[in-house]
Write a structure and sequence with these properties.
Layout lengths: L1 H21 L17 H5 L31 E6 L14 H8 L24 E6 L7 H16 L14 E6 L5 H12 L3 E5 L24 H7 L7 E6 L6 H10 L1 E5 L2 H4 L2 H12 L3 E7 L21 H9 L5 E8 L10 H18 L20
Parallel strand pairs: 1-2, 1-3, 3-8, 4-5, 4-7, 5-6, 7-8
Helix pairs in contact: 3-11, 4-5, 5-6, 9-10, 10-11
The protein binds manganese (II) ion (MN).
């Protein structure tokens, strides 16, 4: 019964405003004539960025060109790697960092609390900034891979404000780019941590030795071979794990090779047969307290929920399922994370960019939480009945 009354009042109010408009625009203003000369700052305060406005940084965070700013201390950096010339099918992930930042525009530090985590990652005294993008060559992959390694190594040397890793180095969340970017990242992390484990969510193994047509050392470096190369270089510990695998294979030999590279497989279907708690348990048991790197290929998500990617595979996990698995991993010794393979020209209504940006928010919470959160923080249920 209240709704119609409200609507009538709204209509009356609008009518009253139009009368005022006829009398002149001054009548609309909320200030007295004496306040006419107030500046924006005096009258309205800070020039805030709204969700749909402002320069583009992840979650409206402070933006710094950290690569030319060695004194820029931070605890967690967002870093774009717009490299997409290592792909086997659709390119376009060079626009991934842009799409993920754009998908984050409704996020902000002051509105970062989630019921699922029961916390706001921006309220833990850590300095979290957007360090922009690595200027990678789109013409020369060997050069680009070196540029990404140098950039990552450079940022790892920056001072922290409140160091959160045992090594005292800051953490970097990388926005791909195609999955090849993980090779230079693992090379850079190896200099600090030695061999590390990887938790890898993807539809594909990415442990293949080479593709048909490989004739040069450089042509071995692709978004489907980088883990093989990393293992060959001694960058990986022998206890990594994939989640969400469902791609087609040459045969069982691919699985044997994958095992030799150091991975255990959790398939896409395992989520139905084992459930999320058991998947979380398997990953935690595999990783233990090893330094671990988290790599999420957005193609692990079903193309219906994340269509904008280079090598889509039908029948994947939902965004919600992976978010719950990620929450279950809190407390492991994460040294960095990435989200790769967002190729926004294949997107619809920013579905993929928004999902990817949401995962980045989860990464920040994951880095901070010491253990998995209890499911859904709610206020106590009020039990008294209102007699009306
Ligand atoms: Mn991949």
């Amino acid at each position: 019964m209240h709704y119609p009354v409200f609507i009538v009042l709204g209509a009356l109010s609008a009518a009253a405003h139009s009368v005022q408009l006829d009398a002149g625009i001054q009548d609309f203003r909320v200030i007295s004539p004496a306040q006419e000369d107030l500046t924006w700052l005096e009258k309205y305060g800070a020039q805030i960025d709204q969700p749909f406005s402002g320069p583009l940084s992840f979650s409206h965070l402070p933006y710094s060109r950290c690569l030319e700013n060695p004194d820029e201390a931070f605890d967690i950096a967002i870093l774009g790697m717009p490299f997409d010339t290592g792909v086997t099918y659709r390119n376009g992930a060079r626009f991934g960092p842009y799409a993920i930042r754009s998908g984050s525009r409704r996020q902000r530090e002051s509105r970062g609390y989630t019921m699922a985590w029961g916390t706001n990652p921006y309220e833990h005294g850590l300095k979290i900034i957007d360090c922009g993008d690595v200027p990678v060559s789109p013409f020369d992959n060997a050069l680009a891979v070196d540029q990404m390694e140098v950039a990552y190594s450079t940022l790892l040397k920056h001072d922290t404000v409140n160091a959160t890793t045992p090594s005292g180095t800051p953490r970097i969340v990388s926005l791909g780019g195609d999955h090849t970017i993980v090779l230079p990242i693992l090379r850079a992390l190896n200099k600090v941590h030695g061999p590390i484990s990887v938790i890898h969510f993807d539809a594909h193994l990415d442990t293949w030795p080479a593709y048909a047509g490989t004739t040069t050392d450089q042509s071995r470096v692709t978004h489907g071979t980088f883990f093989y190369l990393a293992q060959e270089e001694g960058l990986l510990a022998n206890n990594s794990i994939h989640g969400g695998i469902r791609c087609k294979l040459e045969g069982v030999s691919d699985l044997q090779n994958d095992q030799e590279v150091g991975f255990q497989i959790i398939s896409t279907d395992d989520i139905d047969d084992l459930g999320i708690p058991e998947i979380v348990r398997l990953i935690r048991a595999r990783i233990g307290d090893s330094p671990v790197y988290l790599s999420v290929d957005i193609d692990v998500i079903d193309p219906g929920s994340a269509p904008a990617t280079g090598t889509p595979e039908a029948g994947g996990w939902t965004t919600r399922e992976l978010k719950r698995i990620i929450r279950g991993l809190a407390g492991l010794n994460f040294v960095g994370a990435d989200l790769v393979e967002v190729s926004p020209s294949y997107d619809h209504a920013e579905i993929t960019g928004i999902a990817a940006a949401d995962f980045i928010h989860d990464f920040l919470s994951l880095f901070i939480a010491e253990e998995p959160p209890q499911p859904l923080h709610r206020l106590p249920v009020v039990t008294e009945k209102d007699e009306l």
